[in-house]
Amino acid sequence: MSDPSPVAPAAFRAFVDRAKADTARRWNTGLITVGGLAVVIAIAGIVALAVTGFGSWLTLALVAVFGVVGAGLLVTSVLRGRILRILAGDVDQAVACAVDDHGVALANSPVIPWDQVVFVGVLNDRPRTDRLRGIPIFNWGGRAALKAGNGTILCEIAVRDGEAFRAAFTDRSAAKRVGLYPRWPDGVRHGLLPLLLDSVLSEETTQAVVRVLFEQARARGIPHALFESSFAFLKWKGPLLDHDWPELG
Questions:
Q1: pLDDT tens string 63-73
Q2: How many CB atoms are located within 10 Å of the residue 16 CB?
């Protein structure tokens, strides 16, 4: 994915791909079921081993690890399901991203006026994900997670007054998506609103969102950049979010 060329309209709406979002929910529900079963089986196994005295401490440890993995899958899937509900909603024409001359709004969020936007950053995680697919365990687990709504194109919009932006949400669960950072000398805390674009959007719409956001940011002198490295992305955005961000080598 390359830095898109500027062809942004004055007003833009990116609608959720309903079929894709519904498929992700079904896969995610399946992973919740698998994780829950793994936890139940592990607990039952530990109890049985403790009561009968069968097996060694190594056996108990292996069963416990199995349970921990199941618990991790359960928790991440439940959280992913909550995010999918916030992003995709339940209507056929849910808007994942809206852009016009006044500002930008991501799924179920208040409008961010352009003068409140600190930066627009995009992380294309597909190259790393493709490399990890060569690892046998990830080949199945990674594919399942992607089908369940784990996106690979992360768009983040930073807001100057993150606390005020959080307070403007009517949905408290959705407000928690806004990350807050330490106070700047002027007393405000910058906020960060993320959206995994390709988790609920078609490929064509994902590209269009990035193209439009970058054009609008470019026209207003707002920092914007596309990265394929998480470290490079963090190094770029860190000082824009935190006044005392340490120098990264």
A1: 888 888 888 87
A2: 25
